[in-house]
Structure formats: C-alpha cells, structure tokens
Design goal:
Blueprint (H helix, E strand, L loop, with lengths): L11 E6 L8 E6 L12 E2 L5 E9 L2 H10 L11 H10 L9 E9 L9 E6 L8 E5 L2 E5 L2 H7 L8 H10 L12 E3 L4 E6 L10 E2 L7 H4 L7 H19 L6 E4 L4 H13 L4 E6 L8 H11 L2 E6 L2 H13 L8 H13 L4 E3 L4 H4 L5 H15 L4 H18 L2 H12 L7 H5 L5 H7 L20 H12 L4 H28 L3 E3 L5 H8 L14 H7 L5 H5 L9 H6 L3 H8 L14 H10 L6 H16 L1
Parallel strand pairs: 12-13, 12-15, 13-14, 15-16
Antiparallel strand pairs: 1-2, 3-4, 4-5, 5-6, 6-10, 7-8, 7-9, 10-11
Helix pairs in contact: 1-2, 6-7, 6-19, 6-20, 7-8, 10-18, 12-14, 12-18, 13-14, 17-18, 24-25
Amino acid sequence: MTAAMQRRGPDEDGFLIAEPRAPGLALGMRRLSIIDLPGGQQPIWNENHDVAVVFNGEIYNYRELRERLTNCGHKFSTQSDTEVLVHAWEEWGEDCLTELRGMFAFALLDLRERYAISPILFLARDPLGIKPLYYTQTADGFAFASEVRALLAADRSLQKLSQDALTSYLLFGSVSEPVTMLEGVFSLPPGHRMLLYVPDRRRTPRARPWWDPVHSPAAQDPKKTRDLAHAAKRLRPLLEDAVRSHLIADVPVGLFLSSGLDSSAIAALAGKAHPGIRSFTLTFPKTPYDEADLARVVAARCGTQHQEVPLDGDAVLARLDEALSALDQPTMDGINTYFVSWAAREVGLKVALSGLGGDELFAGYRTFTDTPRMATLVRTAFFVPAALRTVTAPLVNSLAKQQNSPDAARKAAAAWAYPDRLPHPYFFTRALFPLGQLQALIDPRFRPSTINADGVTLDPTWLGWLERASDEARKFEPVAGVAWLELRTYMASTLLRDTDSVSMNRSLEVRVPLLDTPLVEFVCALPDEARRRPDQQKALLTESLADLLPPEILAQRKRTFTLPWEQWLRGPLRTRLTASFAEPAKTLAPYLKPNALTNVWNDFLSEKTSWSRPWSLYVLNEWCKSHL
C-alpha cells in the first residue's frame, strides 16, 4: 500500500506492526519531509510507547500547542508538528481535534488498557477536507489510506465501478463525498472522525462529525458585525495570520500567482511576511488565457521573485498520460492543477501557497447569482403537474437558450422538469450533465442515505451528503448558504481532492491559507450584509486588502483559471479523444447507453456544448481503463 503512494512521500517510509498488543493491526506511511527534516520520522510515539500516530498534513499552531502541552507535563523528543498529536490525544482525547489548526488526516493508535477494554484506532480529517482519507471494510478486515490506489493495491477485488459514484461524476464532473468510484470504498467526510476497537471485526465503524461552524467561537460571538467595512477590518488580521502561519517550513516555500484576486491577495500578504518570496505563473503564450502580464504587475507590487513557466498544446500532449495517471479518482478539473504543480516543481519548490477557497468564501462564483434565479424556477415548477412540466421542458430550454448558453439552458430545463430530484436549487447550477442529458448517457441512480435515531449515517451515499449539506445551508442566510454548499460539495469533492492528488503526485505540498479554520469560521458567521456589496465581486476581501493590491487587479472582472482546452481539444488532442471514445472501457461500457460517448463528442465538434463535457468523459474512460 505504501509503495503505491511513494510519490506522496519520496523522502522515507515508516511502519508499525502492532503484534502482540493489537493483533492483526499494521500501519504504514510515506513521508514528504517539510518540518523537522531529520527528526520527524513516523510513526511517532508518546513517552510511554503506548500511543502512536501516522499523519498526513501540517499542524500550523503546533508550536503553541507544544508549549501548552509541555506546561501540562508532556515531554517531547522531536521538533515535529506530528508529535503534538499523540500528546494532545493524551491530554484531551477526542476533544484534541478542536485544538488543531491545520490540514490533516491521521490515524492514532492507543494501546493503553486504562482508556478502553481493547486497543483503539482513531481516524480524523480536517474541517474542510484539505487532506483525504479513504477506507473500506471487507470480510478480511478494515483498511484505510490517503489514496484510493493504495486500497486497490491491498485488495484487487475492489476493482468494481460504483453506479452511485458514476451518477455523481456525470452530474458534477467529480465523485461527490463520501463515495468513491470504487464500490465499497468511502471517503471519511471533511470534519469527521471514526473510532475502531481493533480486535472487533464485527462492528462496522461509522463516521461522526466533529466540526460545525454554527458552534464556533466566531458564531457565538455576541459582537458579530453587520457592517461590511467593519467586517473587513476584522478580517485583515485573520488573513495576515493565516498566511504567516502557512509559511512555516524547513524547505523552500513559494506561491502560485495568476492574475486573480485570491492568489494576488496571498502574494501581497506573503510578500509582507516573507520579503522576496518566490512566485510563479503558468503562461499560455499567444492565447486569450494567458495571465502573464497582470501576474507580473502583482509580482512587482508585492516584491516576489517571479518566474514564468510556458505551456502549449504540444507540451500538454507530451505529458498527458503522466497527468492522467496522477488522478487518484476521475475528475474533469484536476489536469489544470496537475500542470500548475508540475510548474511549481520545475522552479524548484516543495511547498506552494494557493488562493483556493476565495471564490467559495467571498462569493466569487456565478452560482451566487444563479442560485436565487434557479430557486425561483424550482419553486414555480412545484405548482405545475409533473406531466405538464415534462411536456413544456423543451420550451423552457428554448427560452433560456435565447438568454444564455445551450448548457445553461439545459440546466434550467432540468430544474423545471425534475425540481425535486436534487435537494437544493444550487445543485442544478453546478450540474455538468443536467438530468435530461444524464439520462441519455446512463440510467442514473439516486439513493438516499439511511440515518439512525442518533443521526449516524449507516450507508453513506452522495445524495445523502448533498441532502445533509442542503439542510445545513438553510440555517444560514442566502449568500452564506450558497457559500456553505460550495465549501461542502464543489470545493471538497473537486478542488481540494484534485489539488491534493495531483500535487502530491508531483511530491509537492499545496497549502491553502484562505481555508484557515479561524478565518473560515469568522466569514461563515457573518450576515450577508457584511459579506456583499451590490455590483462588486468579493467585496469583503477587496475591502480588506485594497491598500495592498494593484488597481488593475481590483478593477478586473472574475476570470476562471483554466487551460485552453477549447483550442486544444479541437487541435493537438482531437485525435486522442476520438480514439478513446471509439473504445469505451470494458468496466464502463455496460453502464453506458449506445453511442453515449461519441454523441457528446460530436456535440462539441459542432459547437453545441462546451469542452468540459467531452473532456470529463475522456478522463472517466481513461481512468477506468487504467485502474479497473
């Protein structure tokens, strides 16, 4: 299993065979050494050698925790952030999670007899899901890992495509939490924990939530501001502290710089905290997608050591197999991040800061304006009989097409025809293949989760996760509710998963300061009037950092970072996609309707749909050929 993840941790490995105290248990890890290079080998034990941990991620407040725990009598033998976990567990038990500030997935083994009647294995994942943790339970036992491919290495019988996950993937372009593309393999959801009694093979472990921003200190603060200007002033020190803490490392740290507000904000704050920090931009010469000129302006203003890494269609074609193999699960979006990670390693970085999270927290996406309109359409649809909705859906499609793109019109038609199929109007705006198109590809599967009287999910499904996120979103005001759905679904299941998978495949650690827990909790607690200003995107972030950023960045409209796929799919990649669609993967083909792949490809070639739909099918097809 660790060999399958060698690129995640090329520096060293570590193993723990727990016989005879915990019969049948073994832990392994691969290390990408960032902090305490000579002393941070894992697993790390406590002083009595009865609590051990293997850990993926970074604890940014480990120095403060180390001081507190030392004052409580704990003795440390390394300078690593990992060691904080065993002592925090000894001191606070499961409550230690609320003390941690960072990105993490860890497994902690407690052999102490006084704690329980048998050894305990405790698994936990950070609040936002920055670091992944997958698990499966079969007749042979329980296994977990940071990647699906490691579980496949442990048990090839897991090579069965999940029909649930296939529906989710085609709907949204990635596999939604907590399912994976493999039947019986699940993700421990963001902000969840799991406790196992080691010798007990009969009891199925259940994921339980441990983080809820509604109960955070920021949410309970009686002095919550309702004014955007005041909120921006309070946000500024949180941003500065987040970036400063994310710069802690014993290896070179740099940052990815595009022309966008989020990465520019990180560059400005990092430049203040670490003058001369390195930055880099992935450029696409002679295309409308090239952001090099504006990135140079930001780099000059922030005083970074800036480099540019050019990329064209021929270079993508030459490295495409390598990029596809980096995907732990299929995704329409991950190849973008792969090439950013490739560029970071090209300029010699081992740690890079990213502006990921800014659009979700500060209302940067169109979903924040599209969701209210979609909600009106959905509410109206409920007053119309289902049979009449089905008949009139083409009319809705036609009317919407006059004002929007063909793909946006299909989303509106799907919301009109099937208003109750998805648990919130937001999900219609995020659809890749709306329900009408989806049914032309496969027979979709919508299966809710079963939840017991204690609120514990017994059979995790993607639809159950969406329903739960929707229920939580309705506790917030409208803009904050959409932000919560972005954080809990698109960001967790697409952006963060892709970033971890492809960056770690390049042995690069990507850090996301805008998802620092205190910062997220503060913004989540704000009312909508303190978040937004009419006709200004990301008003709160802009107000907070206006004095640090060039006016060109503040004035520009939102640009989505993407590679020039539209051109490349019609040019250097066309032959490759045509050949792939002519030969569906053997494990995927039984689920596909006749000519499903080629029909979408032909729609793209005739300009009836955008590049994302054939590209998502190509990635899915190639992933199935490679992994199943």
